[in-house]
Write the structure tokens for this entry.
Amino acid sequence: MNLAVQLAPTHPRGLWLKNPVMNASGTFGYGTEYSSLLDIQRLGAIVCKATTLEPREGNPQPRLRETPCGLLNSIGLQNIGVEALIEQKAPLWASWKVPVLVNVAGETVEDYARLASRLDGVPGVSGLEVNISCPNVEAGGITFGTDPRMAAAVTKAVLSSTSLPVVVKLTPNVTDIVEIALAVSEAGAHALCLVNTLRGMSIDITSRKPFLGNVWGGLSGPAIRPVALYMVYQVARAVKIPIVGCGGIGTAEDALEFTMAGASAVQVGTVQFVNTRGLVDVLEGIGRFMQEKGVEDISGLVGAAHR
Ligand SMILES: Cc1cc2nc3c(=O)[nH]c(=O)nc-3n(C[C@H](O)[C@H](O)[C@H](O)COP(=O)(O)O)c2cc1C
């Protein structure tokens, strides 16, 4: 059985993953945090939490709220900053078999370009995942990922600042995700990741105030899975570059749905907080399914629902 996936076929070096299963950014720290719970080297790739130019403390507490089949979070990009990541984390990643993608986030196009250039050629960094769900301070706080021109501008700026494979991660908080996906793909992204969290809130009826310190947060977990799946399905009809499916995936069956909708790889996020072996369960379950159904190569399942 062949589970290997080429995630960046349009990149000169490409980005081969030995299987399509990776974690979702922000739910797996820097990879090291989970190494006592599962064999992280078995994964197709690891994506670290969002990284900014400067370290960030994140949003005020409380930052997490459970919802039916989901989770609201307003972490606010808490992270150690790119310099500490290069000094403390990348050397360790360089000794790993599993490729690590760095999730990058900025407030201006220039921030993204500087991050991309700083991470270019750093041993241990195999690619970038560009989080365009962040507010653009130059454009009055509109998130980059909700405007096709801004999404394309960030993509181009990153691509011209690095020789690494670039995956652009889209926000679902838009009217037409296909329009954004096309803009990013035409700008030259090597792959897309769909989707980030959906905006939502919760109110504490005792204090009569918003529950989260930041008022609103991002909804994730199985509650958003059908929304994410449909977005992957729609975008897969429109673009030729690989898609990484993300949103509520926790079992092999979920991952296979995304694969059949057109995802070449999948990410497991929130479900890991309930099942710390979620990533391994997904990986082993995909293998079992392929064996049972006599599927030789995972590529035979990608986009099957379109045929
Ligand atoms: C606690 C938490 C932190 C997150 N941090 C990031 C982040 O740093 N960068 C990013 O692109 N997405 C971040 N996300 C979004 C996830 O990577 C993922 O896109 C989203 O949660 C949907 O997948 P899931 O339902 O499997 O969690 C975060 C999600 C959660 C729950």
Summary: The longest helix spans residues 278-293. Residues 24-27, 49-50, 71, 73, 75, 77, 103, 131, 169, 196-197, 220-221, 224, 246-249, 268-270 surround flavin mononucleotide (CB under 6 Å).
